[in-house]
Amino acid sequence: MKKVYLFLYGEINTDGRVQRSIDFLKSFGDIEIHLVSCGMIDFPIEGIIQHQTKLKPLGLRNYMQFRANAKRIIKSADVNNTIFYLHDYYSILLAPVVKSIKGTFVYDAHELLIKAEGQKYTLREKLFIWAEKRWAKDAYRVIAANAEREQVMKDVYGLTNTLNVLNIADYKYKQAAGTVKNDFDWIVYQGVVTESRKLSFFIKSLKHLPSNYKLMIIGGGPDGGPGDRELLEGIAKQEGLFDRVLFTGRMANKDMMEKLKECKVGIITYPFNTYNNIYCSPNKLYEYTAIGMPVISSKQPFLEKVVLSYNIGGMFDFEDEKAFADTVQKIISNYDEYTGNIPAFLKDYNISIEKQKFVEALKPLFA
């Protein structure tokens, strides 16, 4: 029996991309799937053998303990019957361990670390860029989160073993967005709670909306903590908007999807500072639309193309709070029109297409 070991320096309950890759792998039938992850939250997945390092994905010491556990598992595996699946850039540092036992691995690059010419790298970014450049070419497949990221990795690293799989949610909704009744029109942001995403802009925009409009912020900091929540709460108080902003904290993916049903419009926002953000591949686009929710998005090329061509929401820039508010009101005032356009988008961007690409690319490993 073939075995697959997936490695994630993160918490599985909040990582929809890893959850989907597990579901895709189940398509290969009689295989044994192991997940090596970390975090303090138990999140059992049916039919999966889980090896959990009971530490938050935070700091060098915790990472080194995770890596030591992962290395021990790799070394003990029957290499002839095992495929190693390395998720996100932290796991690329396990590639030389896999190579040392002549193992086969797949590398799923969640993020695009490569920056535009002239942009500076931190020491940590330099390490992982070096690691990707050194070992990504040895992977059976390098999986990028969209075609644009795939092309950048091919050009810079000289790769010929790439594939792209979009972050499309596998979610069969029973209730559409806004069907959980309350007295408010909730606008929702879900993601990393950091002012680098200019979340204060959305808080201040509430001044230009009627009092029944409120903002829900779902998520935490990039290190698993609260992020910039305290800063943003202070801004809300200063602006007299504290009672119109709700911070839920981090939520498991399935719980978040239920919470989204209370909301009417989903915010997608990224700065224009790196290739990773310019060529973003946001889970949230597909999570919002999976429950029939229109979106309001920053103007990254892919997002602008799909939002406007399918007419599933509106766009904004960060120069005009009132224009953002006006666009939100336009969407809610014409809600049936926008929600009625979402099925056409979901027909063209659906998980079945991504699953087929994944299965076809990896099928030889399970022959």
In short:
With 367 residues, the protein is an alpha/beta fold. It has 15 helices and 13 strands.
List the helices and strands and how they pair.
Elements: E1 2-8, H1 16-25, E2 31-38, E3 49-53, H2 59-76, E4 82-87, H3 88-91, H4 95-100, E5 104-108, H5 123-135, E6 141-144, H6 147-157, E7 162-164, E8 185-190, H7 199-205, E9 213-218, H8 229-238, E10 245-249, H9 253-260, E11 263-268, H10 275-278, H11 283-290, E12 295-297, H12 301-309, E13 313-315, H13 321-333, H14 335-348, H15 351-362
Parallel strand pairs: 1-2, 1-4, 2-3, 4-5, 5-6, 6-7, 8-9, 8-11, 9-10, 11-12, 12-13
Helix pairs in contact: 7-13
Textual characterization of the structure:
The chain is built from 15 helices and 13 strands. It has 367 residues and is an alpha/beta fold. The protein has a seven-stranded parallel β-sheet, with helices on both faces. Helix 6 (147-157) links the parallel strand 6 (141-144) and strand 7. Helix 7 crosses helix 13 (321-333). The chain is globular and about 65 Å long. The model has no long low-confidence stretch (mean pLDDT 93).
Radius of gyration: 21 Å
Assembly classification: single chain
β content, as a range? 15-25%
Number of helices, counting only DSSP H or I runs of 4 residues or more:
15
Which keywords apply here?
single chain; 367 residues; alpha/beta; seven-stranded parallel sheet; six-stranded parallel sheet; 40% helix; globular
